[in-house]
Specification:
The complex is a heterodimer of chains A (350) and B (595). Chain A has 350 residues and is of the alpha/beta class. Chain A has helices at residues 37-51, 67-70, 89-99, 111-117, 119-127, 172-178, 192-204, 230-235, 286-298, 316-320, 332-335, 339-349, and strands at 59-63, 80-83, 104-110, 132-138, 141-142, 148-149, 183-188, 208-214, 237-239, 241-246, 261-265, 271-276, 302-309. Chain A has one domain (22-320): Rossmann fold (3-Layer(aba) Sandwich). Chain A has 12 helices and 13 strands. Chain A has an 8-stranded mixed sheet, with helices on both faces. Chain A has a 3-stranded antiparallel sheet with strand order 10-12-11. In chain A, strands 5-6 form a two-stranded antiparallel ribbon. Among the domains of chain B are: 100-203 and 352-416, FAD/NAD(P)-binding domain; 205-350, FAD/NAD(P)-binding domain. In chain B, 30% of the residues lie in helices and 20% in strands. Chain B has 22 helices and 24 strands. In chain B, the strands form 7 sheets. Chain B has a 5-stranded parallel sheet with strand order 3-2-1-4-16, covered by helices on one side. Classes of the chains: A alpha/beta (350), B alpha/beta (595). The complex binds flavin-adenine dinucleotide, thiamine diphosphate (TPP), iron/sulfur cluster (SF4) (3 copies) and magnesium ion. One iron/sulfur cluster binds at residues 16-18, 28-29, 69-71, 78-79, 81, 487-490 of chain B. The site of one iron/sulfur cluster (SF4) has 15 residues of chain B, from helix 2 and helix 3.
């Protein structure tokens, strides 16, 4: 068993705008099961951050408990990280984000972590539109505790040693849409062409960007009776279209016919371009997204891709009007402006 | 592209860069692992089977394996393969009980070998165990050929050479030293040899014809003749100021030897630019470290003679100009450069010479007076006469002579048994999984970061005062271990089984050097190479293409910078990747494998 990743890389590996290579965004060697979908998501995050030329020290990784929540150790080894309590990542992320609005927040959670024990936490982070990317690595089971059905397991789906699941599944993407998430997408760990641009768009989006990534648990839930195994997912995939993320500064070179494509400009000037596969989709309409998710499910298809985004959304800081300077950067003089200011404030309330 | 056929022995052979580059195809990674395990005698025997002179080659080999070594493509320097070989030779135990048994009852066939260099000795090594009677002729007083007469003792101690030459002579070869064969015709007619092998080398040094050559003759020496005279003790001193003409390995050995025979101001003067000198970089470095300056871009114009005695040389300064990959040396127009000297050593090349082979006996020579010899069988146009080593295609090196010797021995054996010499035996090949358990391999797959270790040298003053003192001291056991650990085990092959792959991407994600891609196949190899995650830009390295997978894509691996770390196989949940050790051995005479 190898515990250390060899330090050699391809001699011609590309360098990004900051002069970093992909290696600078890697983390420790994964200890997850060989073939776990979660590792592919880590690789996609590495790729996206490399391509976005993000300075690693400007990122904070947050997670709960679970195989999925372990993964921040395996990417962005030079970034900040907080591995919190089971299901409690959303409140830790909210607090961190309030204290320092200047960092990029990458939350990684599991379907158990977010849809069971952390459901209450999750919903509030959504409705507050915390500025973060929130990835659920969804394998329909509690991988870390040996594969019990989770709340996202489909009715009738059975894990390797399990009975068919009798309960209705929670669809986290639908819930995020209903609660006001300003960016909602779904993807599949085995589809890096789709996942990498989605992650880039989610990181660049201001507000709560949610990605539900189907991520097979090869050890406990990759059997023929499971609807979250590699084979089932591949056979039932459908996509809203192809997403391109075009960074600010770069010109958009491809052009598509009206109605076929939609370009959304983000607050930082970058552009998300969706080449639609289904003309029914209206990216700015929650109702359209919710309906399509249902329609595809009725056809036993899993709809992936970008589902909804509100590029003009106001994040938590804007909603409550916090200081533009991160709270953690304020000095004592600013935080305790003195008796005079207090008196003035008190007077105004009389 | 068609899926790769990994059952073709040549596919994985090419992946083991060092072994592939070695003319004798020595299984390098195999013996490096044995050295790491301190199994020096085993490592020695793996070498001995392939290259016959591990102790000699571990010190003097031209090491074509090292520029080929994969490690040099992922970091600064290749594995010190050659010097590791020496460690095996230095630390081995007695090998007598491991040598082939020489049959008491002979097969009745008699072979004559002309020249006792590495080529002839290899033929003897391969044919003696098969029961042949062998007569070996050399004009020198002892065996070894140029290894004895040319390679100086400070690079190759006589004891090391003697041991490895004697291993072969002791098989019962009948040697006739100080015996110059002056007629091939006589050898063929007067004796009843079933076959003759010509391993007489390229024993003629090129001379230089410029003004003053004749007048200064007493102090002008042809490099290889001079080195031989030194080796056999006929020359023991040289002038204080010595000029060595030439930039190859003979020049390097001449100048370093001159330093040891009393030369204080020894200079190498060469026509070409420094970078283009024929000598290996390490040879130039060693010479410079001994206080020998190298003057490049200087063309000899005249020997300067006063009172009938050599006093110096005149050179013209030139610069190299390149046109359509052709080099020209153009005079710079600067005034000529004079250098004073007492002796000049001419080391500007070697030629084949066969004054002892009659041109009317049916043995064809080409326009350059080289014998016409088949590249695979080493047979000449006289079916019972075979050539090998420098005598066959011009000056090369010891390992090439050995490789020729093995092939010629196969031909001679086939010829003597009345079988066609073109019926070459296939290589011996095995491909075996190295899986020992989950994520456990029989080889150490952890990749070490260590930079190449340097071999320690003897004290310079001591080395210069004793012409037989070996300069390189060799690695000690611990350094050898660390150097051996730098080897990437390129014979541990990644073998892919399409039907097991679930396309989970785990191998792609883990591969440190981005060798793997799942892509839609293409008719054109060049197009496919560009479609990979990292374009496969090294055309010398193969790409490994699988059959189509469930999603319609193929797995394509660029072999170029694979570290053989086994991580792809460790991360694969279905064991679609496996690490399998590939062993390739060139068959020897009498070893024809059944097809
Ligand atoms: C100065 C110098 C340094 C070298 N250093 C290296 C080195 O470091 N590493 C390396 O790999 N290679 C080196 N070489 C090259 C290497 O020595 C030769 O390529 C190699 O020895 C060739 O082997 P061979 O068996 O063909 O013949 P040789 O080794 O040349 O042996 C031929 C023998 O045949 C004898 N002979 C010739 N004609 C007759 C005849 N008619 N009758 C009887 N005997 C005859 C000669 O006396 C000689 O002993 C060096 C060469 C020179 C000149
Ligand atoms: C408070 C608390 N309750 C229960 C557990 C046990 N536990 C650990 S991980 C886990 C479920 C993880 O499932 P998921 O978030 O889907 O992660 P996965 O391993 O599937 O990626 C549970 C129940 C715990 N660690 N802490
Ligand atoms: S148990 Fe499942 S989720 Fe956890 S690491 Fe293994 S495959 Fe991945
Ligand atoms: S790394 Fe080892 S096996 Fe690979 S080419 Fe170099 S010496 Fe040979
Ligand atoms: S052995 Fe596998 S993981 Fe390692 S470098 Fe080669 S292809 Fe990549
Ligand atoms: Mg889970």
């Amino acid at each position: 068993m190898t515990y250390l990743r060899p330090s050699f890389r391809h001699p011609e590996q590309p360098i990004n705008e900051l002069g970093f290579t992909r290696k600078d965004y890697e983390g420790a060697l994964s200890t997850l099961c060989a073939g776990c979908g979660h590792d592919s998501i880590s690789a996609a995050i590495v790729q996206a951050c490399f391509e976005l030329s993000i300075a690693p020290h400007k990122v904070a990784k947050l997670s709960g408990i679970g195989c999925s929540s372990k993964t921040p150790t395996y990417f962005l080894g030079n970034s900040h990280g907080f591995n919190s309590v089971h299901g409690r990542m959303p409140s830790v992320a909210t607090g961190a984000n309030l204290a320092n609005r200047d960092l990029i927040y990458v939350g990684v959670s599991g379907d158990g972590d977010s849809a069971s024990i952390g459901m209450g936490q999750f919903t509030h982070a959504v409705r507050r539109n915390v500025n973060m990317m929130y990835v659920v690595e969804n394998n329909g089971c509690y991988g870390l505790t040996k594969g019990q059905d989770s709340a996202t397991a489909d009715v009738g789906s059975a894990s390797k040693k399990g009975e068919p699941n009798p309960f209705e599944a929670i669809d986290l993407a639908s819930i995020a849409l209903q609660l006001g998430a300003s960016f909602v997408a779904r993807s599949f760990s085995g589809d890096r062409e789709q996942l990498v641009p989605l992650i880039k768009a989610a990181i660049s989006h201001r507000g709560f960007a949610f990605i539900d990534v189907i991520s097979p648990c090869v050890t406990f839930n990759n059997n023929p009776a499971s609807t979250k195994g590699y084979e089932y997912v591949r056979d039932h995939l459908a996509a809203t279209g192809t997403v391109d993320y075009v960074p600010f500064k770069q010109e958009i070179s491809t052009s598509y016919a009206e109605g076929e494509s939609k370009a959304v400009t983000l607050h930082d000037g970058s552009v998300v371009q969706l080449r639609k596969a289904d003309p029914e989709l209206d990216l700015n309409s929650r109702r359209s997204a919710l309906r399509l998710i249902k329609d595809y499910r009725a056809k036993e298809q899993i709809l992936t891709g970008l589902l909804y985004m509100d590029e003009d959304s106001q994040d938590l800081h804007e909603i409550i009007g916090t200081s533009k300077t991160p709270l953690q950067a304020l000095t004592e003089a600013e935080l305790c402006p003195g008796q005079k200011v207090l008196d003035k404030l008190n007077d105004s309330l009389r | 592209m068609k899926p790769t056929d990994v059952n073709d022995p040549e596919y994985f052979h090419r992946v083991v860069d060092c072994q592939y580059a070695c003319p004798a195809h020595t299984p390098v990674p195999e013996y490096i692992r044995l050295i790491a395990a301190q199994r020096y005698t085993d490592a020695y025997m793996v070498n001995w089977e392939s290259n016959v002179f591990p102790g000699v080659l571990g010190r003097t080999c031209d090491r074509p394996c090292e520029p080929a070594c994969r490690r040099g493509r992922v970091e600064e320097e290749p594995v010190a393969i050659c010097r590791l070989k020496r460690v095996a030779a230095d630390n081995k135990a007695n090998i007598q009980d491991r040598l082939p048994v020489i049959p008491k009852k002979k097969n009745g066939k008699r072979i004559a070998l002309v020249g006792a260099g590495p080529a002839s000795l290899t033929v003897a090594r391969d044919l003696m165990p098969l029961g042949y009677n062998i007569d070996l002729f050399d004009e020198q007083p002892a065996g070894g050929g140029f290894m004895r007469s040319q390679i100086p003792a400070f690079r190759l101690p006589e004891s090391v050479l003697n041991e490895e030459v004697d291993t072969i002579l002791d098989m019962g070869v009948v040697s006739h030293f100080t015996h110059y064969v002056d007629s091939l015709k006589a050898l063929l007619e007067q004796s009843d040899y079933d076959a003759v092998f010509v391993g007489s080398g390229a024993p003629m040094g090129r001379d230089i014809d410029i003004s003053g050559r004749e007048a200064a003759d007493a102090n002008i020496h042809i490099g290889i003749n001079w080195l031989a005279s030194v080796a056999f003790g006929h020359v023991q001193a040289v002038g204080r100021r010595v000029l060595v003409l030439g930039g190859g390995n003979t020049a390097m050995d001449c100048c370093r030897t001159a330093r040891r025979l009393g030369g204080e101001d020894v200079r190498v003067v060469v026509r070409s630019p420094f970078e283009e000198m024929k000598a290996s970089p390490w040879e130039k470095e060693d010479a410079q470290q001994e206080g020998i300056p190298i003057y490049d871009n200087h063309v000899p114009k005249a020997f300067l003679v006063e009172d009938g005695k050599l006093v110096g040389m005149r050179f013209e300064k030139v610069k190299a100009v390149y046109e359509d990959a052709k080099r020209q040396l153009i005079p710079t127009g600067e005034p000529p450069v004079d250098m004073a000297c007492d002796d000049v050593l001419v080391a500007i090349g070697q030629q084949n010479a066969f004054p002892w082979i009659e041109r009317d006996i049916g043995l064809e020579f080409d326009q350059w007076q080289l014998p016409v010899v088949d590249k695979d069988t080493f047979q000449s146009t006289l079916p019972n006469v075979f050539f090998g080593g420098d005598a066959a295609f011009g000056p090369e090196n010891v390992i090439t002579a050995v490789a020729h010797g093995h092939q010629a021995a196969i031909s001679i054996d086939l010829f003597c048994r009345g079988e066609p010499v073109t019926q070459r035996p296939p290589p011996g090949v095995t491909l075996v999984s190295q899986k020992m358990g989950i994520h456990e391999w029989s080889y150490d797959n952890q990749i070490e970061d260590d930079a190449r270790y340097r071999v320690p040298h003897a004290n310079l003053d001591q080395a210069l005062s004793d012409r037989s003192l070996e300069v390189e001291l060799g690695f000690d056991a611990e350094t050898a271990f660390h150097e051996a650990q730098r080897c990437l085990n390129c014979d541990a092959q990644t073998v892919f089984t399409e039907k097991l792959c679930i396309e989970c991407d785990a191998c792609l994600d883990i591969c440190p050097t981005s060798c793997l891609s799942f892509v839609v196949n293409d008719d054109e190899e060049s197009a496919l190479r560009q479609k990979l995650r990292m374009p496969a830009n090294n055309p010398d390295q193969a790409i490994y293409v699988s059959d189509n997978l469930a999603t319609g894509r193929a797995m394509v691996k660029d072999e170029n910078v694979c570290l053989h770390c086994g991580l792809c196989a460790e991360r694969c949940p279905t064991a679609a990747w496996d690490m399998q050790q590939f062993y390739y051995s060139v068959s020897k005479a009498g070893e024809e494998a059944q097809p």
